[in-house]
Amino acid sequence: MRARGGILGRNMMAALSISWFYGYTQLRRNIFWSFHYALSPLAFFFFIYIYGGRLGAPYAIAGGLVMITLAASVSMETEAAFNRIVLKLQEVYVASPISPTAYVLGLAMANGLSAIPGMALMLSIAGLLADLTPRFFLAVFSSLPLIWLTFSSFGFLLSTLARDVKDLWTWTPIITGLLSVLPPVFYPLELLPGNLRWIAYAIPSATASRLIQESLGVVDLGGEAALLWIALATHTGVALTILLKKVRWRLP
Amino acid sequence: MADTAISALNLWKRYPGGVLALDNVSLDVPRGCIFSLLGRNGAGKTTFIKIASTQLMPSGGDLRVLGFDVVSEAQEIRKRIALTPQEGRPALLNTPYEHVFHYLLARGLSIFEASARTLKTLKELDMMEYAHRTCSQLSGGLRQRTLAAMALATDADLLFLDEPTLGLDVLTRMKVWEVIRRAAAENGQTVFLTTHYMEEAETLSDRVGIIEGGRLVKVGHVSDVKEALGEKMCVEISGYDLDVEMLRGVGQVLVLGRSVRVLADKKRCDELLEWAVRAGKPSIFRPASLEDAFIALVGRGVEDEG
Fold first, then answer.
1. Is B86 an 8 Å CB contact of chain A?
2. B88 touching A, CB under 8 A?
3. How far from chain centre, in Å, is Cα B207?
4. Pairing of strands B68-69, B60-65
5. Residue A241 is assigned to a structural domain of this protein
6. B38-79 pLDDT, tens digit each
7. Would the CB atoms of A21 and B57 count as touching at under 8 Å?
8. Domains of chain B listed by start with CATH number
9. Cβ of B58 under 8 Å from any chain A Cβ?
10. Digit-coded pLDDT (tens) for B229-270
11. Angle, CA A103 vertex, CA A99 and CA A105 arms, to 5°
């Protein structure tokens, strides 16, 4: 009973199975896991909406969607480290036909599943407070998967460096905070001094947020949009390349 | 297809910290056999398994698994092996069924095959009653069996089981042995296991290896290893006031807490037993076991290790 199907099909099946195991089945038994990703974005939304009203809502919506995706993908570091160091189940996957790509993708999809309830909540709020156009959905469903891939790759690489899960407990909130609160994720890039505007291209969460802000009609990007999409795709490409080249599937 | 499942030649491993974990290990494990690698904690058993199961790079030497080189052909090896890790733990929010079924699916089996194999293995391991309970509700033994089931349910040519029965009660251990035996006898799978239970190695294995300080000190059939003692019988005497020096004159002496084992030929053992009975010392007379051979070769019992 050897594995059948092409390499791509086998990898997809393996990734789906791993994501079902670590994502759906566990989420079903502890739904609170999924809502904790939405707590900080909802708190930000609350304050921005109180002080900014309907004018601030699009920034809070864009920032919230990005922050949920970011938190769910960076948390890959603790998930993967827990699986490797505490459960030792990663050893079971290494000593098997399952590829590192399928394993990482499976864990990333599992974490992605946990983000869905929070995303749904944020999209419902968006539906109440903003005019949602096909352009909005295109921006959301194109940019967020790209930052999900970027930060999941980053999270997995980080997990391979950990000696103990405790090493990483503090990293997820720090990284999520640094990449979603400081850069222009919940506010317009124009508030930053001119010499810091490059941040929109350098930090994927800021790039994605700016694209979603534009799709909500609060900023006008013109030709800049194409450059932002290229930057976002480049970040993802670089992250995946580093992951595939540097993943420590077998220890030295 | 190579006749040997595992063939190591002068294999060595030095960890980045400088510890020499394996020192010129050479051994052959024939296909279809059950091989047990015995050794004290830190002797190098798990390092060997990690290298052979392509989790860890060797520092030097040659190791071929199922005919493939562990360094350059790891992918080919991974298609044909499965592993139960040492001190692994199942995911507490998942059930034993989910562990085995999803692992088999991820390995490339169809949903139907994965489900059938999962149910068959869980049934063989007496786990059907617990198949759909989350592991958080299961005892330590059932959790350990869940991990063993993941490897035993596969059709892998070679199973690496790193202390698969650790913490299991004797009846459950026997159940796992039965499934391991069946894997080798009926499916032709090779089983490479490490264990601290000498009776497990003696009962289960076709061949055993004893490793100490990274060096393989003995390898062969269980009887070969026992014959390494050169003696066949053992008298075990209990008591606090035993004259060990006197006993050393009888044969090879192994001091184990408040009891002493003396390995000698049958005639001398008979004489020693007579003396022990006359002196009112509780004593047992029996053939030398694998544990006796292990203690003699390694110097002390694995139980002495913390």
1. yes
2. yes
3. 10
4. antiparallel
5. yes
6. 998 899 999 999 999 999 999 999 999 999 999 999 999 999
7. no
8. 4-221 (3.40.50.300), 231-287 (3.30.70)
9. no
10. 666 788 989 887 778 888 888 888 888 788 888 888 888 888
11. 115
Average pLDDT of B168-179? 90
Number of domains observed in the structure of chain A: 1
The predicted-structure confidence for A75-105, as pLDDT tens digits, reads as follows 999 999 999 999 999 999 999 999 999 999 9
Q: Concatenated DSSP letters for A11-80?
A: HHHHHHHHHIIIIIHHHHH-THHHHHHHHHHHHHHHHHHHHHHHHHHHHHHHHHHHHHHHHHHHTHHHHH
Mean pLDDT, rounded, for B119-143? 95
Query: What is the pTM (predicted TM-score) of this model?
Result: 0.89
Q: Where are the beta strands (DSSP E) in chain B?
A: 4-14, 20-30, 34-39, 60-65, 68-69, 81-84, 158-162, 190-195, 207-212, 215-221, 233-238, 252-256, 259-264, 283-287
Q: What is the pLDDT of residue B255?
A: 82
Question: For position B2, what pLDDT does the model report?
Answer: 63
Report how far Cα A5 is from the mean position of its chain's Cα atoms: 30
**Which domain, by its residues, includes A176?**
2-246
Q: Inspect the interface and report whether the beta carbons of A93 and B106 lie closer than 8 Å.
A: yes
Tokens of B291: 């544990």
Strand B207-212 and strand B4-14: the pairing is: unpaired
Task: Give the residue from chain B lying closest to A94, CA to CA.
Answer: B55
